[in-house]
Each structure stands twice: as C-alpha cells, then as structure tokens.
Amino acid sequence: MRRLLGLTLRVRDLKAQLAFYRDLLGLEVEADPPRYRLFPQGQGFLLDPIHDPEAPLRPYPSVGLYHFALLLPDGKALAAVFRRLLEGKAHFEGAADHGVSEALYFRDPEGNGLELYRDRPRGEWPEGPLMFTAPLNLEKLLGESPGSSSLPPETQLGHIHLHAACGRPGRGRGLLFWKTGDGRHPAHLPRGPLLRPGRLPPPCGGQHLGGKAPGPGRLHGACGLCAEGPPRVPPGLYRNPTGALAQT
Question: How far is CA 175 from the centre of its chain?
Fold first, then answer.
C-alpha cells in the first residue's frame, strides 16, 4: 500500500505552532533549528515545521495547502482527541459524516487546515454510494470517550488536499488530492468541473482529482505547505527539496 509519510510546513510563530502540535495534540519533537520534526509515538508520519519568522501569510484561497488529514484508528480515539482540542479552545470549523468515515475539521494557529478522521469498518459501510457528506452526530461521537487524550501512537497521515493551478486558461484553480489508503476519499472534493487524472503531474506518484477553487497564485515563501514532488517517479522513498518524505 502506498502511504504518505511526511509533510513540511513553513511557520512564522514557532511557539504557537509547537503549543498546538506538541502540547495539545501530543506529537513528540526533535529539534534542529530552524527545522523541527514532530511525530506521534508510533512514528507513523513526520511533520516538519521550518521556522521562518519573515514568511508572509498566504492569502486564502491560493495555491498551497487546503488541509492535511490525520487518520486515527477508531471512533474512541477520534472522540478523545476531539475533546482535547475543544478543551484547548482550538479553532473548530465543522464535522461531516462521509459514510465510510467520520471527519472533524480544525485550523492550526496559522490557519492551516487540519482534518482528523477515522474510517468505519467495512461492515458498517453504507449501501449505495459509499461517499457522501452529511451532518455528523457529535454527541454520539463524544459518547465514545468520556475523557480526552492526545493523538494515539497509531495515527497516520491519511491524505492531503491542495489548492493548485489547473494549468489551462479559463479553468480557474484546482484542488489537488494526495492520498493514502483505498481511494474512497476523493469524494471529499467539492462539486465542480473535475480534471481528468493525469492532467496535473501527480506528486510522488499520488492520485489526484481537481475541483474548481478560484484563488490567487502561490505566494513565494509563504506560510503553509512547501512540499512539491516530481511526476512519474519510480517506486521508492524520496525527499523533496524541502525535506518532506514520500513513499511511492
């Protein structure tokens, strides 16, 4: 199975970002300033913040990160982390029942989108369309865990959504999708004209679809995602110029 292993973010306020990812979410930290490596106890993925106090804030929407998603092992773990983030007054944007998964949406202190989700067991998948968007019963979810906790050791980097230029005049911007797993999550994309697979170069072999998401171009050196990958790379482990690790 192909799996995403790392993500690099350029950050302005290192103290605030560490307070969120280390102190609130519970990621462990290895420091080598100006770079830091954050990871869960199980080391299922790496989050590499690059401290750049002069980096401009990226306007939203624009080419760059839409959100990255952390996959938790079950509903109990998702509920416990949800409680912890609510207690820590993290910026909560919403929640959704996607049929095969339950998802919570947050933003970190610099506005980067963070999705926390769990995949339902195959026996609980809905009949008919597997993927849809419906309200999530938050009271029922919170009932799965009476207490709060940080991210469990099994947490993985499940998928990434990017705002990306589609490369064709008159087609606006696209939403680029890097994923791991069984391919269910492309239905998270908003409705709109979809780009055919292969129209955009797949970063490090990832699959993608594009949906129209108008916005200005990428702001060089801005906060947010700073990881890009080459098309048509052979299987293996790769680090891009920013140090982000990917497996194809």
Answer: 13
**CA-based torsion, 50, 83, 67, 214: positive or negative:** negative
Where does 6-247 sit in CATH, by number?
3.10.180.10
Residues 79, 149: contact at Cβ < 8 Å? no
Q: Which of 34, 64, 40, 65 is nearest to 149 (CA)?
A: 40
* Dihedral angle sign, alpha carbons of residues 16, 19, 22, 26: negative
Q: Read off the pLDDT of residues 76-124 as tens digits, 9 standing for 90 and up.
A: 999 999 999 999 999 999 999 998 899 999 999 998 999 999 999 888 8
Q: Which residues contact 20 (CB under 8 A, 6 or more apart)?
A: 90, 108, 109
Local structure of 82: helix, strand or coil: helix
Specify the pLDDT at position 220: 53
Q: Which residues neighbour 166 within 8 Å (Cβ) at sequence distance 6 or greater?
A: 172, 173, 174, 195, 199, 200, 210
Query: For the segment 35-84, what is each residue's pLDDT rounded down to a tens digit?
Result: 889 999 999 999 999 999 988 877 766 777 888 999 999 999 999 999 99
Domain ranges of the chain: 6-247
Q: What is the token pair recorded at 224?
A: 């947010």
**Widest Cα–Cα separation across the chain:** 52
> Per-residue pLDDT averaged across 201-209, rounded?
32
Q: With beta carbons less than 8 A apart as the criterion, state whether 195 and 166 touch.
A: yes
CA distances from 183 to 130, 149, 174 (A): 11, 29, 19
Residue-wise pLDDT tens digits, 17-35: 999 999 999 999 999 888 8
